Amino acid sequence: MTEHIVVVGHGMVSHRFVSTLGSRYADTDLAVTVIGEEPDPAYDRVGLSAYVGAWERAALHLEDARHSADPRVTVRSGHLVTAIDRSARQVELDSGEFISYDTLVLATGSRAFVPPVPGHDLPGCHVYRTLDDLDAIRAAAETAGPGAHGVVIGGGLLGIEAANALSLIGLTPHVVERNDRLMPVQVDGRGGALLGDLIRDRGIEVHLSVTDTVIEPRDGADGDGGVRVTLTGDDGETTAVEAAVVVFSVGVRPRDELARGAGLALAERGGVLTDRACRTSDPHVFAIGECAAIEGTCYGLVGPGYASAEVVAARLGDGPGADAEFTGADLATKLKLMGVDVASFGDAHGRTPGCLELVVDDPVTRTYSKLVLSDDALTLLGGVFVGDAGPYQLLKPLLGRTLPSSNPLSLITPGAAADGGGVGVESLPDDAQICSCNAVTKGTLRDAICGGACDVPALKACTRAGTSCGSCLPLMRQVLEAEGVEQSTALCEHFDQSRSELFEIVTVTGIRTFSGLIGRFGRGSGCDICKPTVASILASTSSDHVLDGEQASLQDTNDHFLANIQKNGTYSVVPRMPGGEVTADQLIVIGEIARDHDLYVKVTGGQRIDLFGARVEELPQIWRRLVDAGMESGHAYGKSLRTVKSCVGTSWCRYGQQDSVGMAVLLETRYRGLRAPHKIKMGVSGCARECAEARGKDVGVIATETGWNLYVGGNGGATPRHAQLLAGDLTDDQLIRYIDRTVMFYVRTAERLQRIAPWLESLEGGIDHLREVVCEDSLGLAAELEGRMESHVEGYVDEWAAVLDDPDKLGRFVSFINAPEAPDPTVQFEERDGRKVPVLLGSPSMPARV
């Protein structure tokens, strides 16, 4: 008999519940209906600020946001549940439709609280909670124009994030806080003071100890022309800010109105009252996430929400965990606000009687660290970090435990961040949480390692650790190392060095041959791993032809013949078409080549034309005709730049905001032929409609009204990823320089066959670190990286043309050395549905298409 489960709300916690339910009871006869009020399916509300600049809703959607992989799940987005009929066990939608349930799960979340200050309901006032909220704020900011101000009421975590969003939109932000410091819940007085200074340094005005706020229309009768915000401090002084928008971010309230209407018990301070099983006063109704008051307490963080979701998912079956209960919540906080590290955990304010506070306040490095200890200085009770949260990750799991060091001061002194503050992962007990988002302990990770998970991706797949905020990834690597799983960086058995280390060796020593490199830094004669890797490094560090001298023998088959080998031993030829542009004469030449050599023709997804079925001895003949027509190698065979896809932009499109074709041509011409650890694909979209799918590329560029947004780390393939915003509203010159630095930093530091997305994921500090290197030149490498790229651009030579001009290289393009004119008799074709297809000897013919 089918169990009908209805879930009201489709946020992060609801998504976790349905995903856990689906995997836990994969063979159970379930019918799950998820009803979401917003038009979007579940998205990353914690990362809401990432929407600013990109303005692409789908980029925030959670993996399989609509649960399309599970046919038992139906997602109804854009629908509001208006009532619950508990006696009939059904819910009513705003459309008048009724849906029956056996079990009802309330995941209605919370709403932003708006204090009843005068003028709070004027049109210029907003909250910071949903994608629609951000769209409304953006529209108001665009109407106001450059130089306008925005006011954020509330100086907590979300308030500072909202201020950062206003800054990215182009407003001058003001943060208003009634307390004497920012983030008063998470940090103490001195930490809050330093945080305020660091935030002010980033162009945000901070108003503290504000006791009264009045909002009035500035122009017109209703505030459409902006508002005037008058702030009164505890000293009686007033400040007036003329603002385009006001954003309220002073906390949330649980959405319990549906439960209230159904007669379910509520907690004294709001929220749907549940027991530790997350069951409400009706045994057929559960509540999870921010709407649930578990034993009277609401938790406004995603970690406790996930925990409640997993409790209910376990409770709905009769297998292991059927008696699961909510055992408490980790309320620790670690985040980076506008580039400023902030973290707190445990008794951050030192409220435990008799506790000791150990503080390091460093005005030179502008960092603040505090540990709260028991009265005997042996047990860790809490901590606060501002400016540098390095020690946090290893200290937080020791909360309530005896410290491993007899000198607690050594745990937070300068330099502690680099070495874990004298605390190693080996000192953590098995029940210490490594991933607080998903409640994964060190013991769980150790069990997974014993079960065969030998790297971070494998640990993520089997434990969920590191799949939410990702801050625990360095600690996961340390657990692997502590368990004796050596994370070798050796390229292969012939080189102890990693690819990035060999890159530096080649750069510094000037060695230009594989034999010279292996003779001095390696051993043996090499293999199919190190030879092409070194060949790529040599090609990346000079403009020498890949078939010059000894290098020719290092190449894999594709690079050896400058073409992609196909299944029957023939090759494909892909001429470059920068930006997808091609002349009529060039198209005619391509058609004539295809006709004369009887080639199969296909338009690729990268705006190029692929010619299939060329025999090796035909390649130079085909290249000659293409080169004479003004075309060149498209490097479809190399670990190098493939294409720069583009839409038509302002050239033709009425929505275009910049010349996307011109930029795509410029980028493809600049980076053509650049050898890299893996292939590189780029895209340039002329507006936010994203017709070039730029966020699915290694490097993506999207036009804005004032310039370009630059994204990195996207790709399709077996593990699709959306690219992340690196920088916004760039000029042409800034865009080129930032791409130069990014791509060359990748070429310099990535490992063998590591594409940009996994490279970025493995990069310590991720996108934030890359932004510091590329945009802020934190490593002082900008000039060197740009110089290397200029050397590549100046030294570029078309590889096909170079072969045609060199008789020795031309001699390689034969099927048989002793019979240069003889074709390979094993290469055969047949025709299927009017198309030429390869036939493999000894294999049955390909079936006809239907």
Automatic annotation (TrEMBL):
Positions bound to siroheme: C691
Cofactor(s) it depends on: [4Fe-4S] cluster; FAD; [2Fe-2S] cluster; siroheme
Domain NADH-rubredoxin oxidoreductase C-terminal: 332-398
Residue span(s) of domain Nitrite/sulphite reductase 4Fe-4S: 638-777
FAD/NAD(P)-binding domain span: 4-292
Keywords (A to Z) from UniProt: 2Fe-2S, 4Fe-4S, FAD, Flavoprotein, Heme, Iron, Iron-sulfur, Metal-binding, Nitrate assimilation, Oxidoreductase, Thioether bond
Cofactor binding notes: Binds 1 [4Fe-4S] cluster per subunit. Binds 1 siroheme per subunit.
Residue ranges of domain BFD-like [2Fe-2S]-binding in the record: 434-481
Purpose of the protein: Catalyzes the reduction of sulfite to sulfide, a step in the biosynthesis of sulfur-containing amino acids and cofactors.
Name the record gives this protein: assimilatory sulfite reductase (ferredoxin)
Organism in which the protein naturally occurs: Dietzia maris
Gene this protein is translated from: nirB
